[in-house]
Automatic annotation (TrEMBL):
InterPro entries: Peptide_deformylase, Peptide_deformylase_sf
Keyword flag Disulfide bond: no
Lineage, top ranks: Bacteria, Pseudomonadati, Pseudomonadota, Gammaproteobacteria, Methylococcales
HAMAP family membership: Pep_deformylase (MF_00163)
Catalysed reaction equations from the record: N-terminal N-formyl-L-methionyl-[peptide] + H2O = N-terminal L-methionyl-[peptide] + formate
Function: Removes the formyl group from the N-terminal Met of newly synthesized proteins. Requires at least a dipeptide for an efficient rate of reaction. N-terminal L-methionine is a prerequisite for activity but the enzyme has broad specificity at other positions.
Similarity comment text for this entry: Belongs to the polypeptide deformylase family.
Protein name: Peptide deformylase
Length: 175
């Protein structure tokens, strides 16, 4: 299934919709969705992905911080599948840092995000879980959570001059 799964691009209606809560944790389609999200994220060198990005308007995200070609300085973190997530800000400090998105290729932007969040979610079996995320993993979660609310990272940019071509971004981090 994931070999042919396309990542929806900016302008696709599904990226601007509120995602629906998952209430059936036992369906084959739900578990295939999770497998597809993991596969597409890995194949795309992403550090996170949300179901709307592959055209499924359900509240499912995967957070998987790790160093990649797109995020060479990312810390290592095993993939976490989060279903029906919600979060609480634990550190209201807003930090601006660079983000990109598989649904908005070729562009990076400085985006303000909270430094620390506590996330409550269900795992793929429907069990209640919590995790506290700091810094880059917290940023990844907030980015993916936005997808569930019909937002993309460019909606959070404070100044249009903070948006750059990805080629320019890589020049800046190499300097």
């Amino acid at each position: 299934m994931s070999e042919k799964t396309e990542i929806k691009q900016l302008g696709a209606d599904v990226l601007r919709q509120w995602a629906c809560a998952v209430d059936d944790f036992s369906s084959v389609e739900f578990h295939e969705l999770i497998d597809t999200l993991l596969d597409v994220m890995r194949q795309s060198n992403g550090v996170g992905i949300a179901a709307p990005q592959i055209g499924v308007s359900l509240q499912v995200v995967v957070i998987a911080s790790r160093p990649t070609a797109r995020y060479p300085l990312a810390p290592e973190m095993a993939p976490v599948v989060m279903v029906n997530p919600r979060h609480e800000v634990l550190d209201a400090t807003l930090i601006k840092d660079w983000e990109g998105c598989l649904s908005v290729p070729g562009i990076r932007a400085l985006v303000p995000r909270h430094r620390t969040v506590k996330v409550a979610y269900q795992d793929k079996e429907g069990q209640d879980c919590q995790i506290v995320l700091h810094d880059f993993p917290a940023r990844v979660f907030q980015h993916e959570f936005d997808h569930l609310q019909g937002l993309i990272y460019l909606d959070r940019v404070q100044d249009n001059r903070d948006i750059v071509a990805e080629s320019e971004f890589f020049k800046r981090i190499a300097a």
